[in-house]
Design a protein that fits this description.
The structure is a single chain. This protein has one helix at 2-16, and strands at residues 21-25, 31-34, 42-44, 78-83, 89-91, 96-103, 111-116, 119-120, 130-133, 139-148, 154-157, 161-166. By secondary structure, the protein is mostly beta strands. It has 2 domains: 2-44, no CATH class; 78-166, Immunoglobulin-like, CATH 2.60.40. The radius of gyration is 24 Å and the shape is elongated.
Length: 180
């Protein structure tokens, strides 16, 4: 599988610089791609790279569908979970600090609600911009946060981030086991 991914990445890189790409099959039936000609290689004609521009959301600056800023307050330009980072791995941690940032700073009366694996933390009550998660279960988790006004209207929602927690194995306590 890694060879296939590596081959496709090499192919994509060669496409990005618009060089010729050659394809051949070796005596074991393995398909190869290269930017160098090879005996019995076939030159591949590759279409141009497709690109697109993103479009602005219809809602005013919040990044959340249906969001409306509080009266007299500037809309949130964005919000994000800054700790833990997306894709981060932790080994043998008893607790985890969660930090959410908003741009601009959190308005008076607005609240942050954090969800872990689609379930609200803190019994569904606001967690605030910093929250300590304890205990931390072993496995891969998805974390997301919402900024809500005092009347419950969603003003901003963070993209989901994923992190993994590895605990020591019973068979070998010194070696954390990676979940699959």
């Amino acid at each position: 599988m890694r060879k296939l991914v590596f081959t496709l990445m090499c192919l994509a890189c060669s496409l990005a610089v618009a060089q010729a790409v050659y394809k051949w099959v070796d005596e074991n039936g393995v398909v190869h791609y290269s930017d160098q000609p090879h005996p019995n290689a076939e030159k591949i004609h590759v279409k141009a790279i497709q690109t697109y521009k993103s479009t602005a959301l219809d809602t005013p600056g919040s990044g959340a569908p249906g969001a409306t800023p509080a009266a007299g307050a500037a809309a949130y330009r964005g919000c994000a979970v800054v700790q833990p980072q997306d894709g981060q791995d932790f080994a043998n941690v008893p607790s985890l600090s969660i930090v959410v940032q908003t741009d601009p700073a959190l308005h008076s009366g607005d609240q942050i609600f954090v969800t872990l694996d689609v379930q609200g933390l803190n019994d569904g009550k606001p967690t605030g911009p910093q929250f300590n998660l304890s205990p931390v279960d072993r496995g891969t988790h998805t974390l997301q946060a919402q900024v809500r006004s005092s009347d419950g209207t969603m003003l901003c929602q963070t993209p989901g981030i994923t992190f993994s927690v590895h605990q020591a194995s019973i068979a070998n306590p010194a070696n954390p086991v990676r979940p699959h």
